[in-house]
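Long-time lurker, finally posting.

We've been working with Nitrilase protein (Salinisphaera shabanensis E1L3A) and I want a structural starting point before designing mutants. I don't trust myself to interpret raw outputs, so I'm hoping someone here can both generate the structure tokens and explain anything notable. Sequence follows.
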Amino acid sequence: MTTDSDMPRVAAIQMNSRGEVAPNLARADDLLADAARRGAQLAVLPENFALMGAHETDKLRVAEADGAGNGNTPIQDFLAEAARKYGLWIVGGTIPLASDEPDRVYPTCPVYADNGERVARYDKIHLFDVGLPDSAEAYRESATFVAGPPTPNVVDTPFGRLGLSVCYDLRFPELYRALAAEGAEIVVAPSAFTHTTGSAHWHVLTRARAIENLVTMIAPNQAGHHASGRRTYGHSLILDPWGQLKAEAKSEANEVVIASVDRTRIASLREGFPCLSHRRLF
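Top reply, 14 upvotes:
Generated this for you. Predicted structure of Nitrilase protein:
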């Protein structure tokens, strides 16, 4: 029988990121160190972990060329070094990577192995261009972001096949079905959910994606008030493939939540409750 001590431990890192990169990286380093001390082998940072600026265009001034190690990529260099230093696999939330357009960047979710090597890059597919019902809040991510290609991205890790998604992607179940079809056992959803949408839909959406695809969901979120005046929801989550809550952040501040991942349970659920193979296309 697999015991809890035999299972890999994963961390969802919640942040209240502010308007300057250096303090956010220092804060992320402390949180990653805490995750490693508590036995995590995989840590997932939230969307926009390195910068939640006062203005949407702030990300343009800190955008980096793709690829760490040239001295001009402090965010990517930080993630690679933290992975090596703490012996952690790290999903780097999202970071702004330069595109061919001077006024737009890619919202990139990178994955680093514990030796510091980047092993995957996912550019957020669905951009948050919405006005919130019964609210003055409105967002248009496409003004400063370039959407990635609509391709499911799954990477092999020591903890199982890892599927990548970001925030607003949670509202598009077809992406998660595609990730499951590619063999994903764990799916990450680093997010910066608004307090308005999060209080209505965050738990429902993350649980639904876990349940319908029989995957472990790791969903770290931004939390609290930011430089722009925006308030994010927090409640970073880890859910098992039956949709059961394994860990949840309770504050609106920086926090690390950790849970074990039972790969044998994922396999047994999919064998005994084979809804993925019962799918019919219309």
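Before you design anything, note these points.
The radius of gyration is 18 Å.
DSSP finds six helices and 17 strands in the chain.
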